[in-house]
Amino acid sequence: MEFFRNVKKRRAGVLVSLPSIVSEHSFECGDIYSLYPLCDWAKDVGFSIIQLLPLNDTGFGYSPYSAISAFAVDPLYISLYKLGIQTKSRKREIQFLKNHPIRIRNLKLEIIRKLYSENQKEAMNEATYFLEKHPWCYSYAAFRLLYEEFKGKGWWEWPKRFQDPNHSKEYIFSEKREEALFWVYLQKIAYDQLSEVKTHYEDVGVYLKGDMPILTSRNSCDVWEHPEFFIMNLQAGAPPDDFSKTGQTWGFPVLNWETLEKTNYSWWKDRLSYLEHFFHLYRIDHVIGMYRIWAIPEADHTALHGWFHPQFGIATDEFIKEGLDPKHFENLGLIHEFIPGHYIFYWDFWKEPGYQELEEEIKAKLYPLSELHIAEEEKHWREAGEKILEIFESFSSMIPCAEDLGSVPSFIRDSLFERQMIGIDVVRWTRSFTTGEFIPEELYRENAISVLSTHDTSLAMEWWKKEGDMESKLQFFFDRLGKPRPETEDAALLGLLEFVFQTSSIFSIQLFQDLAVGVPSVLENPETHRINLPGTPDHSNWTYRFPILIEEFASDFKRNFSLRKLLLDSGRNS
User: What SUPFAM superfamilies does the database record attribute to this sequence (predicted)?
Assistant: First the structure.
């Protein structure tokens, strides 16, 4: 399609958390209809990419990265207005910066259930037809009913008979068919509405970018139905680093790539094929996990006793060859027998008292074992990751973009570069490896997306005002370019935007809140407009709501003029 072939050129875009973008026709929070006025504004100003955070059903949770289905769209996003339902729930003014997604979803479900009941025969027929075309919805509907019935408890805590997905699907669709088809009907509505949005965007020349988390909630219909696709006794996370001395535990089961390969990656193919109905590009969350993942025992609360999976490990006979007994070092808490006859070394094992107290002769034999297979493991990881990414590209015509933030090993960086995968460069972290200083616009990776912030970071203005050395920021973003130092927050934000749009990155996609020039609430108190603060409780995040309606935001001539000029000057205007 010509439309797809034209996407890879210098462009600017906007990243939004959909429930935060409230329109005149929204019900409490942003929904699928909000994408229409957002598109009109973006096109008018010169943006040609709209990027969304995941839209998956979160159940009783909040994070779209911990959904109960890898396929299902959250009913929260269904537009009542697009359904012809005129129910409204708010005044013209937005009073609070937080949504209540579970309450809003339940109110919507009541309203749509009434529509379903009033047109039951036709609605059930539509749902049945949708089910035949999208069989993943069969397990989702059964799981969703049971998930509601057991109030969000993990499926492994359900009565034994319902832990069996085959029995459950048969039971639900025979005994509770009407209710099951209601959940299918919701997915049919969401599918229709999102598909229409994609068509509209193509008509006006704007691209939609979706988000594909690579990890899946343990309490999801996907893990319930296909536990063989996951290593259930392990959880994914991240090793210790400067930000967290104990690392991160995410709770998601580790993917079993060997089993997935035996199915020709059918689950992934189905996911990507479904996503393609709605998007032109997609973000691969934590692309490093395609190569290797930090795997931690399921019961652990820290990531200290994890290892990179898959890993060869050090065999028992390799210890014996050095005259060492691996069981002795396991008892000291330095290594772990992760598969029979093979051991991994714990992270920073050399800092442990058990290691420090060893004789120097023993240390000289033990430490080299920890690095024995690094070269061959990196070769294996690279080949495995490239194979997976190549298969993914064959499954869809969508353009993949890799989330390659954080500490990325050089072999993965090299691999992504050679594969010409579009990466992400966050301005505050994009610095010289030698001096630690910010790098100028022309030295940014061309095959990347330059951004001021992400959904997991502070906003640009909070970073500007409260994080790092202000003098070095002023010198780099203003003095170096011969621009006067900003006297207002608006001027500071415009200066940062000018820089990020001028970078050599092929795309420059900014968080919607970072475009809020002239919105005092965002500029003065940016910390209250953050989407997610990693490491804090789920319910305190993912509820953000922008303080003014999208139509009102879009009507501001001064802001539109300023942004339009920045995009025009940087050659990114569509």
Answer: (Trans)glycosidases (SSF51445)
Label residue 348 left, alpha or beta by phi (over 0 means left) and psi (-120 to 50 means alpha).
left
Q: Phi/psi at 172 (nearest 5 deg)?
A: -65, -45
Q: CA-CA distance, 333 to 115, in Å (whole number)?
A: 61
266/252 Cα distance (integer angstroms): 20
The answer to whether residues 572 and 12 touch, using CB atoms and an 8 Å cutoff, is yes
**How confident is residue 134, by pLDDT bands cut at 50, 70 and 90?**
very high
What are residue 448's DSSP bridge partners?
Answer: 423
Residues in the chain: 574
Contact by Cβ (8 Å): 26, 91 = no
**10 Å Cβ neighbour count for 323?**
9
pLDDT at 535: 81
Of 386, 301, 377, 387, nearest to 342 by C-alpha is 377
Q: How far is CA 100 from CA 33, 521, 530, in A?
A: 19, 20, 16
Closest CA to 554 of 90, 36, 26, 205: 36
Cis bond leading into 310, ω under 30°? yes
Q: Whole-structure pTM over 0.70, yes or no?
A: yes
Q: Are 396 and 415 in contact (CB under 8 A)?
A: no
pLDDT greater than 70 at residue 2:
no
Q: What is the pLDDT of residue 391?
A: 95
In angstroms, the CA 212 to CA 282 distance is 7
Show the tokens assigned to 487. Answer: 């006297």
Predicted confidence (pLDDT) at residue 5 exceeds the cutoff of 80: no
Give the Cα separation of 41 and 548 in Å (integer): 14
The answer to whether residue 3 scores a pLDDT higher than 70 is no
User: Which amino acid would we find at residue 338?
Assistant: F
At residue 19, the pLDDT reads: 97
CA pair distance 134, 44, nearest whole angstrom: 36
Average pLDDT over residues 519-539: 93
Contacts 24+ apart (CB under 8 A), 486-492: 489/461, 489/465, 489/523, 489/524, 490/517, 490/518, 490/523, 492/461, 492/464
Answer whether residue 71 shows pLDDT above 90.
yes
CB 574 within 8 A of CB 47: yes
| Distance (Å) of CA 299 to CA 152, 163, 218, 236, 302 | 20, 21, 13, 12, 9
Which of 199, 133, 282 minimizes the C-alpha distance to 1?
Answer: 199
